Amino acid sequence: MKRILLSAAVTALLLVPLACNFDQLLAEKVMVGTLLSTPDVDVSLVAMAGLDAGTLPDGGIPPGEERITIPGQTEAFVFFATRNGEQGTPQPLSDATVRIEIQNGGSLALEQQSEDTGMYSLTSDHGDDAGVKYVNGATYNFVAVHGGNSHVGQVKDAPALERLEALHPAGGYVRHAANQSLTLTRPTVSGGKPLTLGFVTVLPLDMDGRKGALTYTNMPKEPLDFLQLVTATGEWQQETLTIPGSAFPLKDSNYLVVFQTAQLGGPQSDNLFTGSTLLVGTADIGLVHTLE
């Protein structure tokens, strides 16, 4: 993710919006940031073993059934840099003070990851960041203070969890053939409003609940991909999502499918470059067990 966001900052410099704040267009400072959340997930050992658990009640796994809980996670991340001319590569700024302000929800101070990287983060599973929370509908301000000046990016109306029914069948998990694609349908938004951005990530899960290296994601990876994200969001606003069969390579195995819905934001203060890109969102998660 950190490499992805660094690439995004480079991409931001290539953008020439049709209409923008002129001061922001000339601003030297650029910011790329995310605050992405996933909920706790209860997984029954029956489901992980691929056994026929029967029909579970709407409340989820029946009381007394052996299960494990995969802790939720909220990760905040900011890359902050300065541009050297219109075509220059952004140079990381590692002497800033970075925080995220949540509307009616306090402030989160991000920690510098290492010197000379311009990267600042806070993650909810590290034990030192109990304040990392996700609030539906809130406005998030990403603030970097450098040289006595505050540089502010903003994301409004943080989206609520978007539940994909295909990830939550009556049996509690999805039984699926290995190496076969899986199509998910997003719920219709009322009032004719456009869908939020939607990203899918798949990663294996062992019997102890440990997550492995991801097998698929449609999150942007390269500069041109992030250019599409900012200028042509429609690719991530489709009503149906098809996960390729390669995301489920092994038989009799477990995979977590994470559907992240996110709101896109940008610069708020005049001293932050107009190409700055910010994402805030939360996720729905389902368990897929591949058949033998």
Which descriptors would you attach to this protein?
mainly beta, 18 strands, 14-stranded mixed beta sheet, single chain, Lipoprotein, two-stranded antiparallel ribbon, elongated, 292 residues, 4 helices, signal, 10% helix
Characterize the structure shown.
There is one protein chain. The chain has 292 residues and is mainly beta. It has one domain (2-290). The chain is 10% helix and 38% strand. It has 4 helices and 18 strands. It has helices at 2-12, 22-26, 45-48, 223-231, and strands at residues 29-38, 41-44, 67-70, 73-82, 91-92, 97-102, 106-109, 111-112, 119-123, 140-146, 149-155, 174-176, 182-185, 197-205, 216-217, 240-243, 254-267, 277-290. Strands 1, 4, 5, 6, 7, 8, 9, 10, 11, 12, 14, 15, 17 and 18 form a 14-stranded mixed β-sheet that branches. Helix 1 (2-12) packs across helix 4. The two termini are 33 Å apart. Keywords: Signal. Residues 1-21 form the signal peptide.
